[in-house]
Amino acid sequence: MTSLASPPPPGWSLSDLAGLPTAGESISSLEISDDGGPGGRLRAARAAGLRFRAEFARSGMPATIDTCDLVTLPYPSRFGLFRATKALAPFLSITNRMLVIRWTDSGGRPRVLLFEPSDVELGRNTPYFAELLRRTPKVVANRVTTVHGTVLEHLARLGIKPSEVDYLVFDHLHTQDLRRWVGTSTFQADLNQRARAIFPNAKVIVQQDELIAMADLHPLQRPWYQPEAYRDVPLDVFLPIEGSVMLGPGVAIIKTPGHVFGNQSLVLNTSTGIWVSSENVIATECLTPEHSRLPGVAAWSRAWRQEVILNANTIETIADQYNSIILEKTIADRAQADSRFLQFFPSSELTPMWTNPGTSPTFRHCAITHAS
């Protein structure tokens, strides 16, 4: 198996991050106290979601939201439908998508945010996926992986120049290599160049907790990160945040720890109501599993009295992830097409594939589309 020994980490520290600017306006209604026991923290998350939901609905709306498919690829069923699946298929398929959000700020300046703009090519170097590719015959890998389009191809289709992008946001930095997006300070042997930033004016909004974690990874985290890819990335490309922030009308980033220590979710107010997006679950039915037709999911939820089904590949802090999903579930509106499900848009959404029997979702969103 590919070595999972810790590669050279980025050299930043907490004191380095303290000197960086941050982004947005802090959301006080989502400050959740650690007081009380585990059950109290869950109740606090639900109460915070209700408070925020009421105020966020009055925050306005962005101008446009576009959805761009990047890649469909295999992912272990035991991770994506944690403990609940009875499907025979060891793998399911997920589609990674990018959201492009545009709005005008209070000063009249147009803003562009890319949510999940993954560099799919460099993402294949993530230790877990690199090992999976090594063990999979190329002809099989080509059959189960579909690249739909690159970040730059989608932006060109939307008429957006790379220089017009203000923010890059990920729910977490698993698999992500940002060198081509934000540039490097030194020559990169594998890229055969000192990378010049494709997005020269963009800043990466990320939870401070995740940057700190990446500088000193735990063994549970190592299969999913590429810390060496951040060693020569200029620290000033980051806008570290602590908690939840409003970025613009109907655009917020909320702290949702658990899947990773520094996980965060995107919240959007649209013409159909409030949407939430992250990779905390891989299908919207995982928030209302009682309505799922996926083998084993509804029965497992009933038997274990758990109201959500986690996407859990690292299980860093699994109780926190459960609470974060409850927060997301409380904030999101009901889906207009089927009110049994919520307007939760998985950044990696479960996708039916003939090779994976028993993993076809009951309901899919496939896209968020909005124009104010």
From TrEMBL:
Cofactor: Zn(2+)
Entry protein name: MBL fold metallo-hydrolase
Entry similarity comment: Belongs to the metallo-beta-lactamase superfamily.
Keyword Hydrolase set for record: yes
Transmembrane segments: none
Keywords: Hydrolase, Metal-binding, Zinc
Organism expressing this protein natively: Duganella guangzhouensis
InterPro entries associated with the record: MBL_superfamily_lactonases, RibonucZ/Hydroxyglut_hydro
GO molecular function, one term: metal ion binding
Presence of the UniProt keyword Heme in the record: no
